[in-house]
Amino acid sequence: MNMRTQTDKDLKSIRQVIEDYAAGADRRDISRLEKAFHDDFRVIALTGEGVQNLDKQTYLDLIRGEKIGGVERQLEIEWITSKNDTARAEIRLKSPAVTFHDDLSFIKDQQEWRIVNNVTQVVPV
User: Fold this and answer.
1) d(Cα 94, Cα 108) in Å, to the nearest integer?
2) CATH at 50
3) How many angstroms separate the Cα of 63 from the Cα of each of 56, 84, 89, 102?
């Protein structure tokens, strides 16, 4: 497999992980989020109330408890870049009330891309 084909395959896989993350949060679909997140996933959210630092289990518990998620948002992928077994992407998730500006970091673990870190700024519309 040449480098171009591998890069295209990786970018397609990363795009799918982003879509699983966005749809999973919007629909409170734990299985899609589990698929998108690495076991060591962490989100750091800059909100009007300050900085929130959540590990994977806490984030999923908030989804399950319907404290977050459940709102359809428009996904915009600004860019994706990958090198070897790491990647980054910048996305926007827009709802009528807020826009999430997400800076996502990925790793390829056991041949599967997963989000390991999300630094997000939550901006009221």
Assistant:
1) 27
2) 3.10.450.50
3) 11, 32, 23, 18
Domain count, the chain: 1
Range of the domain at 46: 3-124
CA Rg value for the chain: 14
- What is the distance between the alpha carbons of residues 92 and 67, in angstroms, rounded to a whole number? 21
pLDDT in tens, 5-38: 568 999 999 999 999 999 999 999 999 999 999 9
Give dist(CA 85, CA 60) in Å, integer: 25
Q: What is the pLDDT of residues 54-92, one digit of tens each?
A: 999 999 999 999 999 999 999 999 999 999 999 999 999
